[in-house]
Design brief:
Number of strands of chain A: 6
Helix content of chain A: 55-70%
Largest interface: A-B, 40 and 40 residues
GO molecular function (chains A, B): calcium-activated cation channel activity
InterPro entries (chains A, B): Csc1-like, CSC1/OSCA1-like_7TM, CSC1/OSCA1-like_cyt, CSC1/OSCA1-like_N
Strand content of chain A: under 5%
Largest sheet of chain A: 4 strands, antiparallel
Shape of chain A: globular
Pfam families (chains A, B): PHM7_cyt, RSN1_7TM, RSN1_TM
GO cellular component, one term (chains A, B): plasma membrane
Oligomer: homodimer
Number of domains of chain A: 3
Radius of gyration of chain A: 30 Å
Structural class of chain A: mainly alpha
Number of helices of chain A: 33
Strand order of the largest sheet of chain A: 2-5-1-6
Main location (chains A, B): membrane
Chain lengths: 720, 720
C-alpha cells in the first residue's frame, strides 16, 4: 500500500463517518424514530429529547454525552456500564498521557535517522511508499545508535503511566462497587443465598423443604426467614409459554377485529382461524372465541401443574432467605457442612439472571463439566485456524500460482476462481464469527454456572483468544512470513528475530484497521441504520398490537461479552506498537475517545442492560489490560535486543514490576469482587425490607400466578 | 554385604530391642521412675499404674496400648495424637492387606525364575550373596516373561487397597475433627477471631480499641462482646520474666534454708548471696530478703508497665470476641472490608499457641516473608547436598583411591585419614540434622504465621524434603551410580534405566535401614534411657525445689514436625519397593506396627501435647502419602518398561486415578480443615459460656496479674 492510498482510505473512512453522523442527527430528530434512538429513556419513563432542547446543532449529542456524570450513567444504565466506561477512559488516558511525551520526542528522533532509506536502496525488494511511514518508527533507527535511549526512556514512561492509571481505576471501581452494594434500597439478592448440593433427605424428614428449613433454622435461629426449593418446572414452563402465546394471539385477533370496524362496516369482521395443522386445514372457527377457550383450558392445566411441581418436583438446590443483609453476606461465603460437596452455599444473584436448571447440577459434575468445556474451547481455538489458513491460501491465490504453476489451469476457470476466492471461505468465516459468541455463551452455560452474568464473563474470557489469535498473531505471523520468505533463504536468522523486526511494517496495516474500526464501526453503531430499517419494516408489515411493536424496537443490551474482547485486541495492538511506531497512539486515542463518546450516548439512550452484576467484570478486564502491558514489555525487550542495544536488559525490571503489581491487585482488590463484604453489607437500610416481597421476586414466572389463591400458594411454597 | 552378615545385623538389632524392652519393664516398675515413664498421667492427675495391676508380665504395656480406645487417646493426648495414630494404622493396614496377596503370590513367582543366577555367572562383578535376596525380587524375572503379569496385577491391587483405605481414613479423620469441634465444653478459641491489618485510626476515634469496637459492633450489633488489642508487650514480658526468675530463686533459697535446719542446727543457716556481677563479687546479703525486695520492686515496675502497655502500646491487630460460636465461625471466614489488606479476619487459635508478635505483621509483608523464607529453604535443600557429597566422597575413600591413585599418599597418613573418614563430616552432618528442625521452625515463624500449630505444620512440610533428598535419592542415586559405573562405559543406556534397574539391589540397604529404625530407634524411644539418666542426675545435683524437679522431668510433646516427615520417608521407601521387592513389606509392617504400639504407650503415658489443632495436620499427611503412592506408580511404570513388558502402558490409569482421587479429596475434605463449619459450630453448648472467662484466658501472662485491682484492669483492657 502506498502512502496516497493510505491517506485516501483514511479520508474515505472519515467521510463515511461524517455522513453517518449527519444521518444520525437528521433521523434522531424525527419523533417517529424515538423508539429506535431513545428506547432506554422511553422504557425508563423519561422524555427522550430532554436536555437536547431541540437545538438544530448536529453535534449536540456529543455535548450531552460529555457532560453526563457517572452517577447519571449508573442511574440510567447500571454499574456494569459505568465500569465499562472506566475501562475505556483508563485506556484513553494512558494513551493521551503517554502521547504527550512519546509523540514530540520519538517522531523527530526517528525521522532524522536514515537507516531505512539507506538500506532500502540496497534491499532485495522494491522501495514502496510504506517506507514513508516507516521513517517514523523505531525501525528507522540505526543499530546500536544512542538514539535508542529515547525509546528506552519512553518504554519506562509508558509502563509507569499505565500502572499508575490502572491502580487509580482499580480503586475507583472498587469504590463504585461498594457504593452500589451499600445502596439503602432493598435488593432482593442481598437477602438470599443459593444453596446447592443438598444431600438426600434423611429418614425422619419428609421433604427437601423441611430438611433445608430445619438445617438453616438450627444455624441461624434468629435471622433465617424462609427457603425456596428449586423445582423441576420444565413442564410448567412449557404450559406457561403456551399460555403466553395464546394471550398474544388473542390480543392480535382483537386488534384485527377492532381495525376491521371501519365506517363502512361498523360491526367489523370477526377473524377466523383453521384449527388444524399450522392453521392450514381443519374447520374454521372464530379466532377470539377459540383463543379464549384455549386460555381457560391452559390456565387450569397450569394451575394443576404448578401444584404438582411445588410438591413433587423439588430438587437438590434452594434459595434461602435471611432477614439481615449482613447475615446473608456472611452465610454466602461460609463453609456450612463438614463435607464440602454438600450444602455448598454461594451469594444469590438477581432473580432475572439466575440460570435455574444449572443450580441442580452436582458439585463434582460441575468441576468435570468445567474441564470438559475448557478442553473443547481450547481445541476450537487451535483448530479454527485451519479455515483461517485456507482463507489465507485462497486470498493469495495469485501468489500460490507463482509458487506452484501447475495449479494455474484450475485457477483459469474463471467462475470457479471467483467462487473460491471471494465467496466460500469468507462466508464461512463471517458465519463462524457471528455464531461464535453464542456458541461460547452456550458452552459456558453448560459448565453449570449459576448466573447469567457469570456465564457472560466466562464466555467473554473464552472469546478473548479468538480475535487475538486471528488478527494479531495471524497478521503479524502471516505478513512477516510472506515478506521475509525470500530473505530467510539466503540469510537464515531465527524466526523470532524476523517476526519482531517486521513489527514496524505491520503497524501500517493496523493503522488502517483501527481507522476502519472507529470511523465506520462506530459510525454505524451511532446511526443504528439496521435496527431502524428493521423496525420500520416490522411496524408496517408484521406488528399489529402494542406489545408486538414494543418487541420490534426492543434494543437489547450493550453486549459486554464481545465488546470487551474486541476492545482488548485494540489495547494489545496499540500497547505493543506504542513505542515502536508512536504514530499508532493518535489512532488509539481516536478509537477509545470516539468509542467512549458514542457508546456513552448509546448507553444513555439506547441499550437496556439485561442484568446488573455491580462491576464484577472488572478483575477480568484489568487482568487482560495487564497481560497486554506485559506482552508489550516483553516485545520491547526482544526488539531492543535485536536492535543490538546493549542496555536492553535494563528493561527486565518492567515485566517484574508488572507481575508484582498484578499480584498486589489480585490480593488487595479482587476478593471484594468475588465475595460480599460485611462492612458494606452492614450499612443501614433505608427501610425495613419487606421479606415477603423479596421472597416473591424470586418465584419464576411460570410458577407465579395471581389467580391461584395466595394463602394456598404460600403454604405450598414454604411450610414455615 | 553377604547374607550372613545381613542376618547377623538383623539378629543384633532384635537382641538390642529385646534388651531395651526388658530394661523398660524393669525400670518402669520402680515407683521412683514414675515421673519419667508416666508424666502425662501424673500431670493429668491419674494413678500411673492403674490398669497395669502390678502384674509381673513384662509385655503388659503392649496389652494396655492395644486395648486403649481412640476416645481414651483423645482424652489423654488430644485429637492431633489420635490423627497421628490414624496415619500409622492406615499405612499399617495398607501394608498388611496388600501383603496378604503380594507375599504368597510374588515370592514364589520370583524365586522360581532364574535370571539373576544365569546372568551373574557371566556378569562383570563378582557374585555376592546379595543375589540370594535378589532372587526374591522382580529383578529375578526374565525380561518379557509372562510372570510379569503377576507383578502387574499386584501393582493394581496395592494401589486400590491404598486408595480405599486412605478414603476411609479421610472420612474418619473428618469425623474426628467435627466431633472435637462439636464438643459442648467451652473452648475459648471458638468464640474469638483474630483481626489483623487494622488500618490507622481515623480522625474522630481516639484509640485503636475504640475503632475496632465501633467497627465490629456496627456489623454484629447483637453478638459482639469485646475486643482485645494486641499490644507491644516486649518490655512487660521482660519484667515479668525477671519477676518469675526472682520467684524461683526465692523458692530455692527458702528450700535451701529449710534443708539446712538439721537436728544438729535446728535454726538453720540463712543462705547469702553476693549482689555483684553473676553473684561473684559485691557485698554479701541475705538471699531470702534480697529476693523478697527485688520481687516487690519488680511487681511495682510490672504494674506500671502493664498500664502503659494497655493504653499506649496498642498495635494493629486484635482479638474480637463474640457471644455465639456460629457467629465467630462465620466471621472468621468472611470478607469484612472492601480492601483485602485491611481488617483481615481469621479463626482464633488456643491462647497458648498464639504467636503474638507475628499478629502485627502487615498483609503484604507476610506475603513477601513467605516467598523469601521459601527461597531460603529451597536453597538449603539444594546446597546442603554439598556436605552430603563430601561425606559420600570420604566414606568411599577406598573407592576413590582406586579411581584416582594419585591421592593415595594423602590417605596413607593414618591420623589424617581417620579424622577425615570418621569424625569431621559425620559430626557436621549430625549437628546439621539435630539443628535442622529448630532452624525450620524458626524460619516458619519468620513467615509471620500466627499460631504455633501452623508454624509446626509449615516446618514439617519443609523438613519432609531433607530426609527424602538425603536418604532416598542419595542412596538410590549414589549406590546405583557407583555400581553401574563400569557397566555404563561399555553399554551406554540412559541413566534413568540404570537407576531403576538397580532398585532391587538398593532394597537390601533399605531392609537393614528399616530394621535399625524400628528395633533400635523404637527400643530407645520406649526405654527412655536418656531422659531417665538426665532426670536422676538433675534431681541429685541440681534441683532443690518441687518446681525445679517438675521441670527436670517435663516430658515435652510428641514432636510432630520431625516424626511425620521421618515416617513419610519410610512410606516412600516401602511403597516404592512393595512390588519390586515384596520382602520389604514385612519390615514396613514391623516399623508401623511397633511404632503404633510403642508410640501409643508413649502418648498415653509420657508425652504432653503443647497444643491442640484438632487434626489440622491431616491434609498435610494425606497429601504426602498420596504423593508417595504416585511416585510408586510412576516407578513401576518405568520399571515394567525396562523389563520390556509390552503391556506396561496399561499402568497409566493408576497415576491418573490417584490424581483424580487427590483432586476429589482436596475439594471434598480439605476445606473443613481450613475453615470452621457452621453446622458443626451450631451444635448446642452444654452450658452458657462465661464470656469474661473466655476473654481472660487470652490475656498474656505478663499482662495478667491478680494483684492489680480487677475493676481497673478490666476498664483498662476494654472500654466497652
Amino acid at each position: 500500500m502506498d502512502l496516497t492510498s493510505f491517506v485516501t482510505s483514511l479520508g474515505t473512512y472519515f467521510g463515511i463517518f461524517m455522513g453517518l453522523m449527519i444521518v444520525y442527527a437528521f433521523l434522531s430528530w424525527r419523533g417517529g424514530n424515538n423508539v429506535v434512538y431513545y428506547p432506554n429513556k422511553i422504557l425508563k419513563g423519561l422524555e427522550p429529547l430532554e436536555g437536547i432542547n431541540k437545538s438544530r446543532n448536529p453535534f449536540i449529542w456529543m455535548k450531552v454525552a460529555l457532560v453526563t456524570s457517572e452517577t447519571e450513567v449508573i442511574a440510567l444504565s447500571g454499574v456494569d456500564t459505568a465500569v465499562y466506561f472506566v475501562f475505556l477512559s483508563t485506556v484513553l488516558s494512558i494513551l493521551v498521557l503517554s502521547a504527550v511525551i512519546l509523540l514530540p520526542v520519538l517522531l523527530p528522533v526517528a525521522v532524522t535517522d536514515e537507516r531505512v532509506v539507506k538500506e532500502s536502496l540496497t534491499s532485495h525488494y522494491n522501495q514502496t511508499v510504506v517506507d514513508e511511514l516507516q521513517k517514523l518508527t523505531m525501525g528507522n533507527i540505526t543499530e546500536k545508535s544512542n538514539r535508542l535511549w529515547a525509546f528506552f526512556v519512553c518504554c519506562y514512561w509508558f509502563s509507569l503511566v499505565a500502572l499508575g492509571l490502572l491502580w487509580k481505576a482499580c480503586k475507583h471501581v472498587s469504590w463504585l462497587r461498594a457504593e452500589a452494594l451499600m445502596d439503602p434500597n432493598v435488593k432482593p439478592e442481598q437477602f438470599a443465598v443459593v444453596v446447592r448440593d443438598i444431600p438426600a433427605v434423611p429418614l425422619g424428614e419428609t421433604t427437601t423443604e423441611e430438611y433445608v428449613h430445619s438445617y438453616f433454622e438450627a444455624i441461624y435461629p434468629e435471622t433465617y426467614y424462609k427457603c425456596m426449593i428449586v423445582t423441576d418446572n420444565r413442564k410448567a414452563n412449557r404450559i406457561w409459554e403456551e399460555l403466553e402465546g395464546y394471550k398474544k394471539q388473542l390480543a392480535r385477533a382483537e386488534t384485527v377485529f377492532q381495525m376491521s370496524k371501519t365506517n363502512a362496516k361498523p360491526e367489523g369482521t370477526r377473524p377466523t382461524i383453521k384449527t388444524g395443522l399450522l392453521g392450514l386445514c381443519g374447520s374454521k372457527v372464530d379466532t377470539i372465541e377459540y383463543y379464549n377457550d384455549r386460555i381457560n383450558e391452559t390456565v387450569t392445566k397450569l394451575e394443576a401443574e404448578q401444584k404438582i411441581t411445588q410438591s413433587k418436583k423439588q430438587q437438590n438446590a434452594a434459595l434461602v432467605f435471611f432477614t439481615s443483609r449482613v447475615v446473608a453476606a456472611s452465610a454466602a461465603q461460609s463453609l456450612h457442612a463438614q463435607m464440602v460437596d454438600t450444602w455448598s452455599v454461594s451469594p444469590a444473584a438477581e432473580p432475572r439472571q439466575l440460570i435455574w436448571h444449572n443450580l441442580t447440577i452436582k458439585y463434582f459434575e460441575r468441576e468435570l463439566r468445567k474441564y470438559l468445556v475448557n478442553a473443547v474451547v481450547a481445541l476450537t481455538i487451535v483448530f479454527y485456524m485451519v479455515p483461517i489458513s485456507f482463507i489465507s491460501a485462497f486470498t493469495t491465490l495469485q501468489n500460490l500460482v507463482e509458487l506452484a504453476p501447475f495449479i494455474e489451469p484450475v485457477v483459469r476457470i474463471k467462475a470457479l476462481r471467483t467462487v473460491l476466492e471471494a465467496y466460500l471461505p469468507q462466508l464461512a468465516l463471517i458465519i463462524f464469527f457471528y455464531l461464535l459468541p453464542k456458541l461460547l455463551l452456550y458452552l459456558s452455560k453448560l459448565e453449570g454456572i449459576p448466573t447469567q452474568s457469570q456465564a457472560v464473563r466466562a464466555a467473554s474470557g473464552k472469546y478473548f483468544y479468538f480475535p487475538v489469535v486471528n488478527v494479531f498473531l495471524g497478521v503479524t505471523l502471516g505478513g512477516t512470513l510472506y515478506r521475509t520468505f525470500k530473505l530467510i533463504e539466503d540469510n537464515p536468522k531465527s524466526l523470532l528475530s524476523w517476526l519482531v523486526m517486521s513489527l514496524p511494517d505491520n503497524a501500517t496495516f493496523f493503522l488502517t484497521y483501527l481507522a476502519l474500526k472507529f470511523f465506520v464501526g462506530y459510525g454505524l453503531e451511532l446511526s443504528r441504520l439496521v435496527p431502524l430499517i428493521l423496525y420500520h419494516f416490522k411496524r408496517k408489515y408484521i406488528c399489529k398490537t402494542e406489545a408486538e411493536c414494543k418487541e420490534a424496537w426492543a434494543p437489547g443490551d450493550l453486549g459486554y461479552e464481545t465488546r470487551v474482547s474486541e476492545d482488548m485486541l485494540i489495547v494489545i495492538i496499540v500497547f505493543c506498537y506504542s513505542v515502536i511506531a508512536p504514530l499508532i497512539i493518535p489512532f488509539g486515542v481516536l478509537y477509545f475517545g470516539l468509542g467512549w463518546l458514542i457508546l456513552r450516548n448509546q448507553a444513555l439512550n439506547v441499550y437496556v442492560p439485561t442484568f446488573e452484576s455491580n462491576g464484577r467484570m472488572w478483575p477480568h478486564i484489568h487482568n487482560r489490560i495487564l497481560a497486554s502491558l506485559i506482552l508489550y514489555q516483553v516485545t520491547m525487550l526482544v526488539y531492543f535486543g535485536l536492535q543490538k542495544f546493549y542496555y536492553a536488559s535494563l528493561l527486565i525490571p518492567l515485566p517484574i514490576l508488572s507481575f508484582i503489581y498484578g499480584f498486589v491487585c489480585a490480593k488487595k482488590f479482587y476478593p471484594a469482587f468475588e465475595r460480599p463484604k460485611l462492612d458494606v453489607a452492614a450499612k443501614s437500610m433505608g427501610e425495613a425490607p419487606d421479606m415477603e416481597l423479596i421472597f416473591r421476586s424470586f418465584i419464576p414466572p411460570s410458577l407465579n400466578s395471581e389467580k391461584i389463591d395466595d394463602e394456598n400458594f404460600e403454604e405450598s411454597i414454604s411450610k414455615v
